[in-house]
Amino acid sequence: MPKKASFLWITDPWETLDHARDTTLRLAHEALAQGHESYWCDVRSIRLEASADGCEVRLEAAPIAPGDVTKRPFPAQVMTSKRFSSVQYRVDPPVDLAYLHPLSLLVLAGARVVNPAVILMTHNEKIEAGFIPGLMPETIAASQWDALSRFGKQHSKCVLKPMHEAQSKGVKLLSWTTPAEVEQSRQALSEATDSFQRPALLQRYIAGIEQGEQRLWFLDGKLLACVRKMPLKGDFRVNIDGGSALRKTSLNPSEKKTARKIGSFLRARKIRLAAVDLIDGFVTDFNFTSPGLITMMEEVLGANLARPIIRALAKPVGK
To answer: Does the bond joining 231 to the residue before it have cis omega, within 30 degrees of 0?
Structure first.
C-alpha cells in the first residue's frame, strides 16, 4: 500500500479564494479522497522566530475540512514546514515582496516546495517563453519610453502586460497609428512602469485571439489536458471571472509539436505543474506560480484531472 503523503497548501487568505472553482482546494480535497493528509495555510502566518538557541520557521496550518469546499479548515496549529512531505506554494501574483519574502523563509527552513522555489523566485512568467526558441511572439520588455515607443510604432497594435501580474490584470491593447493614440499609449506605459522606472512588456497583437487561446496544462512535463479559452465579447482579453467560456478543443500537428517542446523545457526546469497559453501557435503566457482552471476544465472535459496530479505529487522524491 502506498505511503500516505502529507500535503500543505499555502494560499492567499481564505476569504479571498473562489471556493467553488479554486484549483488549490480541488487538489486538496482530491488528496483527502486518496487517503492523504491535507492541510491549509494562510501565507501571512509564515514567520521566522530567532533566539539565542537558533532560528526556526513556523506557520499556522489547519487540516482541510472534508466535504464542502466552502467550509473553513479546522482550527490551525503552529507547525514547521518539515512536518509535510509536499509544500504547495500556490499564492497568486503579483510576485511582489508579500509573495517573495514568505517563500524565502520556506527556503531557509528547507521546505520541499512545488514548484521549485528557485523558479518561483527568479523566473518571470511573462518572459519565460523567450527561453524556447521560436515560440515567443515579437516582444519587448523595457522601461525606456524610446525603446517601447519604437516597438509600438513598428507593430501599430500591441498588448501591454505588467510583468508581475496575472489573470489579465493591467493588460491593455495599445494602438500607435495617430499622435493621439501614441500619447494614450505613453500614459498607459507610464502608469505600468511607475513613470518609466521599471520594465513593462509589450507584445505584438495576435489577431488569432478572436478565435480564442489554447490552454495547455502540464504535469511533470507531460500534457495533461487542453481547452480553448474564449475572449469576452467585444474584448481581446480572456477573463474567466468576467465570464469567458471554456470549450473542448484539439491540438493541430504544429501545436502538438509545440507542446512537446514545452514539455521538454518544463522537465529540464523541474517545473512539475504548469499552464501555458497559445495563440496561433505562439506562447503568450506561462503560469507556474499557481496554475489554475482545473475545476472548470474538469467540468468541460468530463474528466478527473486532479486525480493524476495528486498521484504524481504524492510519490516520494525521486520515485
So the answer is: no
